[in-house]
Input
Amino acid sequence: MTETLTPPAADIDADTLRAGVVEFCAQNWDPDLTVEQWWRLLAESGYAHPMLPSAAGGLGYGQDQAALVSLVLAERGVLGPPGGLGRMLAAPTIAIHGAPEQIRRFVPEILDGRVGWCQLFSEPNAGSDLAGLQCRAERDGDEWVITGQKVWTSGGQVADKGMLLARTDPDLPKHAGISWFAFDMDQPGVEVRPLKEMTGHALFNEVFIDEARVADSSLIGGLNNGWRVGNTTLMVERASLGSSGRTPPEALPGPKGGALTKRAGDFVNAADGGASASGVPPLGVNLWWWLVGLARNNGAINSRVLREDLMRLYGLIEINRLSIQRAKAASSSAAAPNIAKLAMSEMTREFRDIGMRVVGADGMLSGESDAQTNGHIAELALFSPAPSIYGGTDQVQRNIIGERVLGLPKEPGPSRDTPFSELPKN
Output
């Protein structure tokens, strides 16, 4: 194994970019490396998150260039960058709003997988109305004391840090008195309770915070500016959730994820080159081809109606892919992330319906049975309502498009200038 190569500049053409990633993999990938060792090489190369600016450990690439990096990593059969919400949400948010010292402190340990993150936004009484959150932060010298409850916290049980929105001034209007903190999960006063879903998994959690603490130096983007910082997080989330390109296999970051000391090659499904640990590709064109293969094997492909629906789904996948590529263009609609999120919800439902028709009665069988797909279609069906809820419900996305892009009137309610302390609580 040689030293990590320096990738080319951000304005390179696709062929040169592809060649650089191929050469990097050829000279550095070794399945016998530990996950920690491989992620360190990826982070040093800039390929761990190429869309970040160079000051934050990235390469300044655009969406299409970053997608090409991900595609080539998948094609080369290597382990991808750290999974989870740290790389997906926290790193881009801190890179945009963090002070240089904060970027140096938080982002490198995200990109090399040393620390896992979760998102502490939603609350039992402030889900769709996120600005109505009541988790409070009270100043105590150089620290803030946090008390409140969060819910639907993805990966909270394995996270080391959390992106926390808390109310720092209840006398300001509800959108104004909020701040964004990089919050330590491993401390007294923090209790994480997993929420088991009907899939049998516990992706989500509720988090109880009772006088836990966070340093003032971990406040990102300025005091009472959390709504603006949080909206950056949400826009990145919606665009990421809507993306459907081919990606390499992932592993969980941080010591709680349990992957750092394991062999990197063990997380790669060589037969599928980019499939999930279950062997089923993630939502997108690879999953479409997987369904087509099932339909060919069991004869379902002979149905003209099914073939037409499969092509309609393929068209939706391709339109969404092109929309994501266009999202960074100056001419792109401000609603591009919201549209991508809506498209992802629709694709999930389409994959569920078509998948059920392909496998027939096997769609009722779980992974513990002898179903021809080991229960993966049944799990997809059970999971399918979730994308229309998490990351902001489909209804919220449509409201944002209507009000902020189309200029439609907002729902009647108190003036935006009303102090939060004077508003009726949810």
User: Anything to note?
Assistant: The first strand starts at residue 117 and ends at 120. The CA atoms of residues 335 and 401 lie 6 Å apart.
